[in-house]
Amino acid sequence: MKTMLDRKCVPIILGILVLSAFTPFAPTVEGEEIQNGGTLVITLYFDIDSLNVFTMSADPSFRVCEKIYDTLFIVLRNGTYHPWLAESWSISPDAMTYTFNLRHGVTWQDGEPFTSADVKFTFDLAKDNPALDNYALAVSSLESVETPDDYMVVFHLKEPLVPFLFYAGGSCPIVPKHIWETIDDPATFEPMDSPEELVGTGPFNYVSRKPGEQVIVEANEDFWGGRPYIDAIIFKIYTNADARILALMKGEVDAAGSIPSNLIGSLIGQKDLIVIKRPSLQANNWMGFNLRVYPLNIRQVRQAFDYAIDKDFIYSNVEMSITEHGNDGCVTPALAEWLHPEGPLWKGKGMSEDERIAASNKLLDDLGFMPGSDGVRITPNGTRLEFDLLTLSAIPDYVRAAEVIKENLEPVGIKINVRSMETNTVINIVYGSPVGEYDLYIMGCGYEADPDACLYLEFFSNPAIPQWTSDAQAYSNSTLDELLSQQRVEPDLQKRKELIWNIQEILADDLPIVVLFHRVGIVAHRTDKFEGWDDEQGIYSRFTALNVHLIPPPQEPEKEIVEVEVEKAVVPQWVYGAIAVAAIAVVISLGYAFTRK
After folding, report:
1. Which positions ≥6 away from 471 have C-beta within 8 Å?
2. DSSP result, 445-510
3. CA distance 231 to 220
């Protein structure tokens, strides 16, 4: 499963990783009882496209759906697998059988019990319906699914598949059999149109959506892990980055993601704000070629682009030196053990600007592409080297990078027209149907911990998900296909690394895409209303959604009533004597007065 941009490819972990102990919630503060309540407001940088887990593609859709639906386990940022709907799992010695033991006592949000039948149904449905492309990688090698009892699921493969454990356990949300078995066409079904059928086992229930504005989910009172502390989450859509940041600074939203590199400075040091920057294990941001378009289908032309584009300038001036240099082998430097021994591959690496421009011009000269009267090169058949470059208006980094590319290519006689558009419009043009109605585009994708999702999913010529991958660019290389297939089933780690290195060399030479940079994740959240943020797993994670809670108001110290013991006054004896003498004097005086009358 992967999402488009930024498309977010699923994390894939090689082999069996350490299981973390199951703790769905962070521990409460000792002596403090956390109260339920509050609505968390988090930004999305463009609208969701669907809440059908089988076919949705936009990254915001995944952000929302993971609050409603659950997977068998969760892949943490440190690479470990955290039990979720499955409490444990095991793999047979031949890596052909995977067994999951399910959690007891889980119910769907409509009250129906969750069992192994739901898991089997989910994967059988995807296996029988090729159009359910988010699950294509999980079922590509799947032979059958068995359910020995209500709480055990056994997957049998046709052939070994190194990343299958993740594909089955961490990438595919489980859907309720009792609802989806009644749906005529699961590929076109949109749960938002029938909210009563938008049912998961997750901690939040779907409430409503206003297209282009917001999506609301509310706490599932009967969530198997315990009710979330907050009452609801509002996902507010801000396609403009400046507006997104301003809303955060003004306290109109509690957290914001997809913060452009050049806006970090405006947030750092702000009262009640925390900014978090985290490397992304597999976040490629690239310029892609449509190889149906002449002369972009000529490798030397793509190489000329690659020489001329100043990646160093993009890194230092567009990304403010906080991302990673682009690797045309498409493996991010964060994946150090998979990265080519020479590091990021780029034909212009280590060359001066003059040297790169000269190399680019020579390639085009050798092809006989001569400058016209306006300086734009023309091919022998009269085709001008003028191309439209599509980019996402919601991602300022991409817009600025597109302008840099336009400027970089002018000295070599290539004219670029930058077309900044709404995100879903670009996605539909590049990956929609009919395909091929574009020249160049800038896009991005996150894949996380194993290179298979990026390399196989993007560049295999007969991919499991055609419309998302090499078919969009019409790219095919039989040698690359063979290596991509081999690395998927190679159990020896060192041999698999060598295959991955060879793949990077081919991609860096063939250049179906030019990787501009590797993004880092930048998010921020406020600290004046909510606490319990899981900064390790992120503002969008289930763990934040489950643990975040209102900061209790400061309590005034109880007013104590101080009892003061007052000592009784002791009257001296002489006082009593004086009083007595005075009283006698008064009596004598009165008596004398009466006798005078």
Report:
1. 435, 463
2. EE--S-HHHHHHHHH-SS-SSGGGTHHHHT---HHHHHHHHHHHH---HHHHHHHHHHHHHHHHHH
3. 9
State the DSSP string of 270-317: -TTEEEEEEEEEEEEEEEEE-TTSTTTTSHHHHHHHHHHS-HHHIIII
Q: Which of 368, 342, 350 is nearest to 307 (CA)?
A: 350
- Own/partner contacts of 427-434, CB < 8 Å, gap of 24 or more, are 427/4, 427/5, 427/49, 427/57, 427/58, 429/390, 430/288, 430/390, 430/472, 431/4, 431/57, 431/467, 431/468, 431/472, 432/467, 433/467
Local structure of 514: helix, strand or coil: strand
Q: What are phi and psi of 388, to 5 degrees?
A: -90, 135
Among 404, 409, 379, smallest CA distance to 391 is for: 404
When the candidates are 3.30.300.30, 3.30.200.20, 3.40.630.30, 3.10.105.10, the CATH number that belongs to 280-452+493-518 is 3.10.105.10
Note down pLDDT in tens along the chain; length 597 residues. 344 444 443 333 333 333 333 444 444 444 468 999 999 999 999 899 999 999 998 889 999 999 999 999 998 877 789 999 999 999 998 889 999 999 999 999 999 999 999 999 999 999 999 889 889 888 989 999 999 999 999 999 998 888 899 889 998 999 999 999 999 999 999 999 999 999 999 999 999 999 999 999 999 999 999 999 999 999 999 999 999 999 999 999 999 998 888 888 889 889 999 999 876 655 788 999 999 999 999 999 999 999 999 999 998 888 877 778 889 999 988 778 889 999 999 999 999 999 999 999 999 999 999 999 999 999 999 999 999 999 999 888 899 999 999 999 999 999 999 999 998 889 888 887 666 689 999 988 766 567 887 888 789 887 555 445 556 788 999 999 999 999 988 878 899 999 999 999 999 999 999 999 887 778 999 999 999 999 989 999 999 999 999 999 887 666 555 454 544 434 444 433 443 433 334 333 434 333 343
Q: Which of 138, 146, 127, 130 is nearest to 169 (CA)?
A: 138
* Residue 398, amino acid: Y
SS3 string, 403-432, reads HHHHHHHHHHCCEEEEEEECHHHHHHHHHC
Structure tokens at 65: 């759906």
Say which residues have a Cβ less than 8 Å from residue 373's Cβ, sequence separation at least 6.
none
Decide: 233 and 216 in contact? Cβ < 8 Å. Answer: yes
The b-or-e profile of 432-460 (16+ CB within 10 A means b, else e) is eeebeebbbbbbbbbbbbbbbbbbbbbbb
7-254+529-550: which CATH topology? D-Maltodextrin-Binding Protein; domain 2 (3.40.190)
Q: How is the chain split into domains, by residue range?
A: 7-254+529-550, 280-452+493-518
Question: What is the value of pTM for the model shown?
Answer: 0.76
Q: What's the CA gap between 13 and 330, in Å, rounded?
A: 17
Task: Catalogue the E-assigned strands of 128-186.
Answer: 142-149, 152-157
